[in-house]
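DM from R.C. (forwarded with permission)

"hey, sorry to bug you on a friday — could you get me a structure for this? deadline for the figure draft is monday and I only need the backbone to look sensible"
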Amino acid sequence: MILSYAAMGAEADLGAFHRWAEGEGKRLVFPVTGPGGAMDAWEAAGPGAWRRGRFGIQEPDPRLARAAVPGEIEVVLVPCVGFDRACRRLGRGGGYYDRYLPRCPGAFCLGVAFECQRLTELVPEDPWDVPLQAVVTEKGVYGP
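My reply, with the result:
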């Protein structure tokens, strides 16, 4: 099971990856955000099972989707605003992934970004920040 995301704004669009993964029989789940930084993962039941979420992002409609069990998620694809050589990331500041990722023990957390988002300075780290195991860009894969 892979927790992915629907791209927002200038984020890397993973649509081609989603089509490939589904063709390979992988289960894809996507974030559904709620108030107070809450996030859960849901598996859409088909093309008509989507809605626009809190920030205008496409997300599975929980009325037409299946909730994912966080402990069953094996890979999490995390969008990045920026990242450093230690694979620390800058997000959008809501803390959604930092709250959700501890619920996915054993999942491989892979940041997804563009090369131009790689920072030369280290990203400040807070105690609640969840580190990534690697970041992938169009130029390659980075690990701490």
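R.C.: lifesaver. The chain has one domain: 2-142.
me: no worries. The helical segments are 15-23, 96-100.
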